[in-house]
Specification:
Low-confidence stretches: none
Bound molecules: nicotinamide-adenine-dinucleotide, zinc ion
Strand content: 25-35%
Number of helices: 12
Number of strands: 18
CATH topology of the largest domain: Quinone Oxidoreductase, Chain A, domain 1
CATH architecture of the largest domain: Alpha-Beta Complex
CATH superfamily of the largest domain: Medium-chain alcohol dehydrogenases, catalytic domain
Length: 346
């Protein structure tokens, strides 16, 4: 099969011919139709410090996918060949305290496809049957291919009650935009989304009824008065990993405000903890998706009118992956989806 591999410990990814994965008794084999390019894949392409510490070489990368079940391991029940699916890319252990308590997303032994294990940038993917999420007809392959990052957005956005609340989202990357759209969908009052990249703020405004704010030129205080907000935002969703964005969020939250942090800062960063204490702010770190509650909720919302399709800005054949990665690395895109149904040579 054709696949995209980190073949050498240096920047780049290479299209290779690899054996179709052999499945175990509890696995399924998935014919991949479409995949999304993620920020994580960019780190792996760039071969930064994190990637060098984390990713074994060689490895087929990619973890955002949709496809079709084409083979079942002998112990697999409840799934059928021909079913369309996406799936949870975090492969969990079953022995930890949290896993045995049913909180699978908190298992410390989690391994990621396309990061620690063979991934989805390929014509075929092996996945434990447990991780499969079937797709209803209403969710096509390109939306199926971005359920993983939508799941990050949904997990973050649903961390706190947003009904009637004023919500500040910092960072209008694909995940921030989708989180803002979810906040709108579930009934927040004002949803303000910040960035310093005008292209991404324009995209945010196309995806949902949001208030985009370029914090490089506009002051959040002015935005609050324009919206007739008297005190501050009730809930903050931090989706940039940027220290200034977090500072700004703390500044503009109400007393007792709540923050869900998904964005990953590049290293250690200075935090003015006294402000957080005096404002009595609650902070929750968010990792991955709740297995499988986030999947259930996001599929239900997609069936019930949540439309995140405009966040996909580029669609291309898998063989054109190098162009896709170049666009993604420029920061001037939303989600980029690769089509794996007929893979030519690059
Ligand atoms: P992204 O890098 O595409 O988007 C981040 C955005 O933040 C960019 O558009 C950037 O211009 C913007 N930004 C930079 N400085 C800013 C500032 N001062 N104020 C406001 N915005 C600013 O990332 P993404 O793919 O949308 O992911 C969002 C974040 O979530 C990233 O940090 C990513 O690493 C992290 N992430 C975490 C998990 C998890 O499980 N915790 C999973 C996926 C992604
Ligand atoms: Zn991802």
């Amino acid at each position: 099969m054709k696949a995209l591999e980190k073949s050498r410990p240096e920047p780049g990814l290479w299209q290779v011919t690899a054996p179709v994965p052999v499945i175990g008794p509890d696995d399924v084999l998935i014919r991949v139709h479409k995949t999304g390019i993620c920020g994580t894949d960019i780190h792996i392409w760039n071969w930064d410090d994190w990637a060098q510490r984390t990713v074994p070489v060689p490895l087929i990368t990619g973890h955002e996918f949709a496809g079709e079940i084409v083979a079942l391991g002998r112990n697999v029940t409840g799934l059928q060949i021909g079913q369309r699916c996406s799936g949870e890319g975090h492969l969990i252990g079953r022995d930890s305290r949290q896993s045995r308590a049913g909180k699978f997303h908190l298992d410390p032994a989690t391994r990621g496809i396309g990061v620690n294990e063979q991934g989805a940038f390929a014509e075929y993917l092996r996945l434990p049957a447990f991780n499969v999420v079937l797709l209803p007809d209403a969710i096509d392959d390109e939306i199926g291919a971005i359920l993983d990052p939508l799941g990050n957005a949904v997990h973050t956005a649903l961390s706190f009650d947003l009904v009637g609340e004023d919500v500040l989202v910092t960072g209008a990357g694909p995940i921030g935009i989708m989180a803002a759209a979810v906040a709108r969908h579930v009934g927040a009052r004002h949803v303000v989304i910040t960035d310093v990249n005008p292209m991404r703020l324009d995209l945010a405004a196309k995806v949902a009824d949001l208030v985009p704010v370029n914090v490089a030129v506009e002051d959040l205080g002015d935005v609050k008065s324009r919206l007739k907000m008297r005190e501050g935002f009730d809930v903050g969703l931090e989706m940039s990993g940027n220290q200034q964005a977090l500072d700004q969020m703390v500044d503009n939250l109400v007393m007792g405000g709540r923050i869900a942090l998904l964005g990953i800062p590049p290293g250690k960063s200075l935090v003015d903890w006294s402000r957080i204490v005096f404002k009595a702010i609650t902070i929750k770190g968010v990792y991955g998706r709740e297995i499988f509650e986030t999947w259930y909720k996001m599929i239900a919302m997609l069936e019930n009118g949540l439309n995140i399709r405009p966040v996909i800005t580029h669609r291309m054949a898998a063989a054109d992956f190098a162009t896709g990665f170049e666009i993604m690395r420029s920061g001037n895109s939303g989600k980029i989806v690769l089509d794996w149904r007929e893979v030519a040579d690059p």
